[in-house]
């Protein structure tokens, strides 16, 4: 399914990330994407259409029971970089999360 952006559009995906394994996208809704591991606690999701970073909002919610901090950045119009850290601010793998991306109206 390709992204079809409107003022009310949103897309979501579940990320599974076993340590020290390779993360995977599952349960994608609203986009086709791939995920690439950049390093410990660092992945990039590439999606199949451009979303203007000026109107992009992204949210990553950890779904496990361990304390974890998550950052989301959008390096360009077709990717989302996600980094995960433990409570000592060290990068960690083995984090499952839900990713939501939407466009806010300007």
Structural commentary:
- This protein has one domain.
- 0% of the residues lie in helices and 52% in strands.
- It has strands at residues 10-16, 24-29, 33-39, 42-47, 56-62, 69-76, 79-85, 97-103.
- Strands 2-1-8-5 form a four-stranded antiparallel β-sheet, with no helix packed on it. Strands 3-4-7-6 form a four-stranded antiparallel β-sheet, with no helix packed on it.
- A hairpin with a 7-residue loop joins strand 1 (10-16) and strand 2 (24-29).
What is the element layout, followed by pairings?
Elements: E1 10-16, E2 24-29, E3 33-39, E4 42-47, E5 56-62, E6 69-76, E7 79-85, E8 97-103
Pick out the low-confidence regions: 1-8
The coarse silhouette is: globular
Beta strands, count: 8
Give the helix proportion (percent range).
under 10%
Q: What is the arithmetic mean of pLDDT?
A: 77
Tally of DSSP helical segments? 0
Provide the structure class. Answer: mainly beta
The oligomeric state of the chains shown is single chain
Rounded Rg = 13 Å
Overall number of structural domains: 1
The main sheet orders its strands as: 2-1-8-5
What distance separates the N and C termini?
25 Å
Written as H for each helix and E for each strand, in order along the chain, the element string is EEEEEEEE
Strand content: over 45%
Keywords:
8 strands; 52% strand; single chain; 0% helix; 4-stranded antiparallel β-sheet; mainly beta; 106 residues
How would you briefly describe this protein structure?
The chain has 106 residues and is mainly beta. It has no helices and 8 strands. The protein is globular.
């Amino acid at each position: 399914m390709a992204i079809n952006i409107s003022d009310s559009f949103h897309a979501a995906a579940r990320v599974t990330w076993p340590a020290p394994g390779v993360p995977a996208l599952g349960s994608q809704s609203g986009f086709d994407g791939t995920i690439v591991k950049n390093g410990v606690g660092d992945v990039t999701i590439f999606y199949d259409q451009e979303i203007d970073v000026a109107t992009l909002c992204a949210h990553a919610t950890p779904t496990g029971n361990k304390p974890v901090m998550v950052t989301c950045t959008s390096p360009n119009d077709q990717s989302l970089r996600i980094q995960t850290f433990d409570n000592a601010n060290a990068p960690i793998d083995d984090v499952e999360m839900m990713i939501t991306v939407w466009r806010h109206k300007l």
